[in-house]
Every structure is written in structure tokens, then in C-alpha cells.
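Let's study a protein:

___
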Amino acid sequence: MKINAAITAVGGYVPETIMTNAELEKLVDTNDEWIRSRTGIHERRILREPGKATSDMAVRAILPMLEKKGLDPLDIEVIICATVTGDYVFPATANVIADKIGAKNAWSFDISAACSGFLYALETGSKLVSSGAYSKVLVIGADKMSAIVDYTDRNTCIIFGDGAGCVLLEPNTEGLGVIDAVLKSDGSGREFLLQRAGGSLNPPTHETIDQRLHYVFQEGKTVFKFAVTNMADVSCEVMARNNLTGKDVDWLVPHQANLRIIDATAERMELDKSKVLINIQKYGNTTAGTLPLCLYDFESQFKKGDNLIFSTFGGGFTWGALYLKWAY
């Protein structure tokens, strides 16, 4: 009997503080109309509570989900956290989350793949479940991007927000859950989207701090061009591999980086706009958080057996698409 890994519960959390485009107008040379027309973003959420980090947002997404599911944290066997803004360089943020939620029986680790992190983590978690070795795997996508955004850089500060989402993976033998995935990476793209200091290549010094190298750097035009092509390519590839047309797909769950990239992907998939999940206007780009936050926001619209295509693109470069049949 074939075992698939099915999503059986979804959680999400965004901080209370809202940063509007109007507020950004006071910080950098930009305006609301320009931001909306180029990105689709109206506002984003910022974690401003002192002493709170990525793990705290994840905990606030996870605990209500477990409570709703009636699940004890001690039942969770594996925790995978996708993030590029971990609480620490090490230990893994997943370790911190496990401690904070009381998941004492779980082993846990982080995945660093920027905006594609959640999809990489979902595919990894699904293989742990489909192997038959584990039956309760928690997959998280969470980022406190405000910690690495330079609010004097008009190119990047308009894009990012903070947020966290999570899913529970459990075995399914009805043919529902994760069906297929196409995941890719190209490290030569690293120079166009990266945090230039803080790792072993450029450890923190007075010079790296003075040069503002610990913030996100992005060469927007190159990243946009690459993302438009590749997000659409992998989405079409995973559809072709599973004999799906645009009519067969019930929902596109796209990474929320830019509305124009999302529109281009949906167009290539020949997908009606009503099937495309979009919340970028509220949250901006929460990096690893965008895909699970989409699931959290739109969960009530999904029906058992619905065909979902996830599609993403991130720094690295990393990108991919995943085909999942909704299980509840």
C-alpha cells in the first residue's frame, strides 16, 4: 500500500504591527503608487516586540494549530524549520521551537533555501512520512525579514515583511497528499540576491557593519527575469509530469514575491485568476513564510481531493514546484 504524506492541519501567524507604504515614503524615496504597481504590496507586518525572534512567530502559529487538531506536542516526531533569519547562526531555530512548544520527543533541523525553503522542507518532510518511518512531521516556514532589511535601501525595504506558517504532515493511503515535486537550484545566482556578511566568508567586523553588508542585497532586474521564467517552467513541468492541464488545477499557491511574477506564472499554466491565491498585498514577501501563510489564509476554500500546485523562487538561486492533493 502506497503511503503519501498529507497535510492534515495548517497554522499561521503575522505580527500585529502594520507597516504601510505611506510609512515607507517617510523613510526612503518611494511612493505608494509606485510600490503597488510594481509589486502589488500595500502593507507588511513587522515584529517589533523586544526580545522576540523567528522562533516566537513559529510558536504562535504552531500551538493554536496543535490545539485545534487535539494533538500533544509530545506526539510530534520531527520538526523542520525553513528560515534564513534563524534566532542564532546555530543552534537550529527548529531546536529552539521544539523546546518552546514542549516537543521533547522530536528531532529537529533547519533548511536554508531562502524563499524556496518551505517547499524544500515540505518535500523533505513528505519523504520522511512516505518512507513509513514517521507519522507526525511538523514543517514550518518562518522569517523575521525586518532583522536583515536595510530601511535606507529603497530597492529592498519595500518588499519584505515578517511572518510564520506551519503544516502537519501525516500518512495517507487514499492517494492524497504530496504527489510530485520538481526542485532546482543554481548557486551562480548567489551574487544577485544574498546577505553579504555574517557567514564564514565575511565574519562580522566593524568594516562589514559600517558597509551595511549584513542586510539583504538584491539586484532586482536580474532576479525578476530569472524568477518569471523559472517559476513558470517548473510549474508547467510538474503539471506535464502528472498529465494536468490548467483546468485540472484547483489552486495555485505561489510564492508572494511580486504580483507580476505570480500573474506570469498563472498565465503560462493557463490558469484562471480565480484559482490563484494572493495575499501579498497584506504581508509583502515573508520569504519562507509565504506559502504556508497562503494555506492558512485560504484553508476554508479547499476541498478534499483538490489539486494544488505550489510554486516558488528564492535566493541561491533556488526554485521549484510541488503537486499536492488536499486531504480534508
User: Anything to note?
Assistant: The chain has ten helices and 13 strands. The chain has a mean pLDDT of 97.
